[in-house]
Amino acid sequence: MIREVLRMGDPRLLARAQPVAAFGTPELAALIEDMQDTMRHLDGAGLAAPQIGVLLRVAIFGFESNPRYPEAAAVPFTVLINPELEPLSEAIEEGWEGCLSLPGLRGRVPRWQHLRYAGRDPAGRRFEREVAGFHARVVQHECDHLDGILYPMRVRDFRLFGFTDVLKLTDTPD
Known about the structure:
Layout: H1 26-41, E1 46-48, E2 58-63, E3 75-87, E4 92-97, E5 105-112, E6 114-120, E7 126-132, H2 133-146, E8 161-163
Antiparallel strand pairs: 1-2, 2-3, 3-6, 4-5, 5-8, 6-7
């Protein structure tokens, strides 16, 4: 089922989500299915449960291609529950981000270039991956939602934040 995505200003987006304690349940499966339906309907690269008003540490992400990020490499579809992130280098890269909770807006956000993430799948099995580039950016963006952080809170230069149809999506401001 396609769910309403909360928009910036809704206080639920600023709350820290709670860990998932029960795996393999019909309720968790239904939540993940709703998240998938919603993300795909809106051409999202990812979606966190708090964005649909569910304060649990569940994020999904992945796509083969995405019209909102036409230059981005494919990211494997992943359900990430109770995530842990570990940067694997000091390297930070700024890149453009958007968010389904901030429709029509983009901003340049600093993110770790290379990281390891770990967490649980819907059955509760632990897994981990080392990733870089856009995949790493998407994971960090979605995990921020689980901690009540929206990407504008990370923007360093507000000359590089605004409406997508107005901004020049380049590396530097005019």
